[in-house]
Amino acid sequence: MTRGSASLIATFLMGGLLWAGCSSDSTPGSESVVSPTDTIAPKTRADSVAYRLLQAHGMDAWASSPYLRFNFGIETPGGAQTIARHLWNRNTGEYRIEWSAGPDSSYVALVNVRDQHDGRLGGTAYLNGDELTGAAGESAREEAYGRFVNDTYWLLAPLKAFDSGVNRSYLPDSSTAEHDVLRLTFNDVGRTPGDQYWLYVSTETGRLDRWAYHLQGMPEDAPPQFYDWTQYRELPSSGGTVRLASRKAAVGADQALLTNQLALPESPPEGAFSTPKPMLGSE
How much of the chain exceeds pLDDT 90, in percent? Predict the structure, then answer.
């Protein structure tokens, strides 16, 4: 993985810092994370706004989507760069992640997100098609886990507002005619339960327009970081339409995170969870 000097790159390269609110029983891939909206009974103003957020992003369609395919990357004035490629079997937990650490190093991790122990996923990692064993294999699986938790949260956060351990509060002083603002804090769950998020939910569409966060590893007096969620894609599935943002633009900086090449396939490519060499394209 290429490391850059921009603060945005440094932030998302921290592995799991942006995966607040994810516990062992609410990790994407576990059965509890994709409850249809008709199982939720909003009790507060914050719940009602979060419930509308789920509906606007297509939670019920997401619940019935068997596979997810996306890329995670960065965009700067110098161009766009793909950091990792993801393919997820949401029924079995099988997960494929591909990334590079230079022009001659192609990593593939074939793991299962339901088999997580001490920051690593059960499975096998490969470098240029050769299986990694021992410390090298453990390190690659740890990298895969960090990529999984970080990258999927940048993509799926609007669908996770009712995850176990998430505390929602409505901020009337910050809300406007254009946006309802939710503050998310977390119980003792996930890798960094001290993270805080502010979700700016459109009063017109119900979608997430912007978020801000203050991460557990930041200085207490550091200002929150703001990103606009843009370039929404409508992804058809058997249960309806899922709506996800493919670009998160840093406010006040000429750079963005990309969660693109989005698809909800009905079936994976042949050998998707067994082929040790890269196969998810070079886009």
Answer: 77
Q: Is 149 helix (H, G, I), strand (E, B) or coil?
A: helix
Predicted confidence (pLDDT) per residue in 244-282, tens digit: 999 999 999 999 999 999 999 999 999 999 999 999 986
* Extents of the domains making up the chain: 20-263
- 145 Cβ neighbours under 8 A, 6+ residues apart: 15, 16, 111, 116, 119, 120, 121
Instruction: Please write the tens of the pLDDT for every residue from 222-242.
Output: 999 999 999 999 999 988 999
Sequence-ordered list of residues with C-beta below 8 angstroms from that of 270, at least 6 positions apart, any chain: none
Residue that has been written with the tokens 């369609």 in this structure: 61
Q: Does domain 20-263 have CATH number 3.40.1130?
A: no
Whole-structure pTM value: 0.86
Rounded to the nearest 5 degrees, what angle is found at the Cα of 71, between the Cα atoms of 70 and 74?
145
Q: Which residue has the tokens 């670009």?
A: 247
- Secondary structure element (H or E) that encloses residue 258, with its range: strand 256-263
- Cα 74 to chain centroid distance, Å, stands at 14
